[in-house]
Every structure is written in C-alpha cells, then in structure tokens.
Specification:
By secondary structure, the chain is α+β, with helices and mostly antiparallel strands. It is 26% helix and 22% strand. The strands form two sheets. The protein has a seven-stranded antiparallel sheet. The chain has a seven-stranded antiparallel sheet with strand order 6-3-13-5-7-8-9.
C-alpha cells in the first residue's frame, strides 16, 4: 500500500488527494498554455508609473469599462483601425514596457482617421499613375496594379498625386504571398525610373526615393551611393526588439510634409517614424516589386492641409534640432517625463 500523504492522514482518501492534485496540475498547464496579452506599443505619459505601481486586475477591468463608456476628448474610439481604438486599453496593459516617448501617435492621424471618408472620385484621383508604368506593369483598375512575369527586372509604380505640404494618409494593400525577395513601399519623386534590371530594393536605392523593405525590415535611402551600409539603411521597425516583424497585408503610410517625416502603421500598431528631413520635396506614394503576377492596391484615406506652425511647435522643433537624444536628461536635470516625451517625439 502506498504511503499516505499529509492530506490523506487528515481524513481524506488517497484517491481524493490524487484527484485533487491532478486537477490542480491540469489547471496550471492550462494557464501556461494561454498566450500572454501583448502590450500595444503606444506611448503613454503614465507608462513609468505603471511599471512601478501596476493596477490590480480588478482595477484594470473597471478602468477599461470606464474608458469604453467615456470617450477621451479629441480621441474618439469609433471608425478607427483597431490599434487606435485600443489606445485606452493599452494604458492599463500590465506588461507594457515601451517608454512613453518612443512612439507617440501623431495627433493629426486621429483627425484623419476620424474625419469624413474621401469620395470615390478622390480615391480614384489618388490612384496609380498610368503614365509612369513600365511595359511589364498594367493597371487592373485606377487603384490596383498588376506586375507581369518578366524575370530579372524590378518595377516601380508611383501615385498620380504628389505631396509638397500637408498631412496625408494612404493604405497599401499587398498580399504577403505576392512579395518575393525585394518588396518595398515608400515615397519617391517624379523623376524615378519605372524599371531597373535585376532584383533590387528599388525605392531607396538613389536620392530620389525613400523605402521600407518589407522582407528585410530595413528603411533605405541612397543605398547605391553610400559605401557604408549603416549610413543608408537601418533596421525598422524597432519597437518589437529582436523579434522578427512580419508586415501584414494592409500597411498605412503616414506622410507629414509640414514636419517632414514619413511613418508607417498597421491595423494593430503605430510603427514610428521611418524618415525625416523631407521638407521642400514633392513626394509621391510608391512601391517597387519583383514578384510576377503580383497585385498591389492603393487607397487614399485622407489628408489635412498645411497649417501655420504654432509657437509651441516651433520651440519644440528648435529644441529637437539642438539636442542630442542621449544627452537631454543630462543637460536638463529633473526634466519631467512628459517634456522628455515631447523632445523625443517619434524618434
């Protein structure tokens, strides 16, 4: 007979104790098998406080319910991609560890996503440029291109409308199984050639374009002229750390020609700024592809006209131009985290 356990000696049968232990072990394995909730990588001014004083699950549940009932002024939660609607929920995510100043969502992005939808005529007018196609590319409709099957060439397509000022958002719909080895999205000047020989990451190869290579997860600019790769290419996005990022079918391109930056986002995450210093140029939405029979669509979501810069934005721009990102806390002791977040805006 097996020796009685401590619990069994108190009037419980061995079978009952064994059954209880098996139930507890099964519950433990079930908890381990459940995926942990991922923190949505949005900046929040209270992130540092959350790390040291995280609310209990009951408190988080009450706060989430309150956030769903009461919309934050200026940040409505309807008619948004899921990652924007989940912003309030991300504030209370237990395992959020992204610094609040790293990936601040541009306020103007909320205005575009919650503004009126563009008319079909506007969407068509912001489609692909039929006059800048190679003989290996055709348009299925004004907003969808089809690349042919010619080998050892890379084709590039740009949009009809270029942007020199204002804030603009559009979506690129590119299926994951139609990308090949060098799929690149970004912007380009009108002077870019529609085709190059070989399989290359065409956007970002020269000075007239800026691109994000979806396969290598790198942002590219003037890679052909720079002998040092680190000068012309860098890893992007960086908010996921060493974990490889797989770009989904739909990618949002965010171009602010007033501030002079290009950023990207998905339905779940704002990925941060990819390029800066774009002021003074006229840039067109662009893609470059090497995959035969690939279809790539563009959908213009909306934009905001250029507005006179406020005194606050001018001051912040001056400070960002003067500071070195790693020296700001040393130069200004006891700087509030919120001000640090403004100085590190989207960097």
């Amino acid at each position: 007979m097996a020796p009685l356990t401590r619990s069994a000696t108190r009037g419980q049968s061995v079978e009952g104790v064994v059954k209880r232990n098996q139930t507890a072990a099964a519950a433990k394995r079930s908890r381990k098998a459940q995926p942990r909730s991922k923190a949505i990588p949005f900046g929040d001014n209270n992130a540092s406080e959350m790390e040291t004083n995280s609310p209990t699950p009951a408190q988080r549940k009450r706060k989430l319910a309150q956030a769903e009932q009461e919309q934050t002024p200026g940040r409505p939660t309807e008619k948004m991609p899921r990652y924007v609607a989940a912003l309030e929920k991300a504030r209370f995510a237990k395992n959020m560890r992204i610094p609040s100043h790293k990936f601040l969502v541009p306020p103007r992005l909320y205005a575009v996503l919650n503004g009126p939808k563009p008319t079909p005529e506007v969407v068509v007018n912001h489609g692909w440029n039929a006059n800048k196609l190679s003989d290996n590319v055709m348009l299925i409709d004004p907003n969808t291109m089809l690349r042919g099957t010619r080998a050892q060439v890379t084709d590039c397509v740009i949009g009809k409308v270029g942007f020199k000022s204002g804030f603009h958002v559009w979506a690129i719909i590119w299926p994951e199984d139609m990308r090949g080895t060098n799929p690149v999205v970004g912007v380009a000047e009108k002077t870019i050639v529609p085709q190059m020989s070989g399989y290359v990451s065409m956007l970002g190869l020269l000075a007239d374009s800026y691109g994000w290579d979806l396969r290598k997860n790198e942002v590219l600019h003037e890679t052909f002229s720079h002998k040092v790769p680190a000068v012309s290419r860098r890893a992007y996005p960086t908010l996921f750390g060493s974990k490889p990022f797989e770009a989904p079918k739909k990618i949002y391109c965010i171009l602010d020609m007033d501030e002079g930056y290009l950023a990207f986002a998905t339905d779940h995450s704002y990925l941060g700024v990819a390029f800066r210093g774009l002021q003074g140029k006229t840039l067109y939405p662009a893609v470059s592809s090497v995959w035969g029979n690939s279809t790539i669509a563009i959908h213009y979501i909306g934009g905001l006209p250029a507005e006179a810069p406020s005194l606050f934005s001018q001051c912040m721009r001056t400070l960002r131009g003067m500071r070195d990102a790693n020296q700001v806390p040393k130069l200004i002791p006891n700087l509030p985290p919120y001000i640090q977040g403004m100085l590190y805006f989207q960097q």
